[in-house]
Amino acid sequence: MSALPAASVRAALFGTPPATVILPFGSHEDHGPGVPMGDFRLAEAIAARIAERARADGHPALVAPAVPFGGADFFSLVPGGLTLSPATLRAVIDDLLGGLVRQGVRRMLVINGHGGSLGPLLDASRALRHAHGLLVPTLSIWKAGAALLRTQLGETDAAARLGHGADPVRSVSLALFPDQTAAAAPPDRAVPDVGGLPITSFSTLGLDGVEIDLPLESAEVAPEGLFGGDPSLADAATGAALVERLAGIGAALIGRLDALSAALQPGRM
């Protein structure tokens, strides 16, 4: 959308059929050795592939500029990390989506590349539904990518690869930005703990078979940007396959927007 003159954008948005606006959201955080911090570029590139597939299926689509800052969570203290508070991010989302609605846009799809942004995104989309009867779905690409990796490689192989600083982000980065992404060595680290309790995720500790929620910081969980899977297993071919599958899912979702809206009218919530 940014590379088109306003007249071309206007013609696409209000053509027959009208174009869907795809809005990528990413972040700027530590993804471990060899992966650029600006993962918003991955969300933007995947959004562009989705638009290409949608257009090939007869559904016009435009990609908005990526929002490069994610909602602040456990990565907010990473040197070089750039985040927005959840309240600020929610205001940004409201302004962006609300501005498009005021222009007359009724077809939108969010591509989310940061877990800390999902809450504000869902709250904003719910508010749009209540106020305008509009449905704006969100495709969280890394959650979807993890599920796709399990079907692509099998549970055992996927489990060895999935983690922060590892897959699916690392393989996708190798596929989309091979000149800027370096291979990583196998991790050499013990499972971190806090007060003798093992860290089970970026916001939980394990105790007697259950998880305890705790506001941890990334430096406590993953001081080198790595947690979970083995980053050395990532490869460009796996990443390219994930991108194509995500593109197909996003394009299929665009093709179903009208059916979703018809099925979920304001009076049937």
Question: Brief description of this entry?
Answer:
It holds the Pfam family Creatininase. The chain has a domain at 6-144 and 239-268: Creatininase (Rossmann fold), CATH 3.40.50.
**Element order: H for helix, E for strand:** HEHEEEHEHEHHEHEEEEHEHH
* Unreliable stretches covering 5 or more consecutive residues: none
Q: What is the residue-mean pLDDT, rounded to a whole number?
A: 93
* Ends apart, CA distance between termini: 33 Å
Which term fits the overall shape? Answer: globular
Please name the CATH architecture of the domain at 6-144 and 239-268. Answer: 3-Layer(aba) Sandwich
Supply the CATH class of the domain at 6-144 and 239-268.
Alpha Beta
The gyration radius over C-alpha positions equals: 19 Å
Give a count of the beta strands, DSSP E runs of length 2 or more. 12
Instruction: Estimate percent helicity.
Output: 40-55%
- Given the helix and strand composition, which structural class is it? alpha/beta
EC number: 3.5.2.10
InterPro entries: Creatininase-like_sf, Creatininase/forma_Hydrolase
Cofactor: Zn(2+)
Keywords: Hydrolase, Metal-binding, Zinc
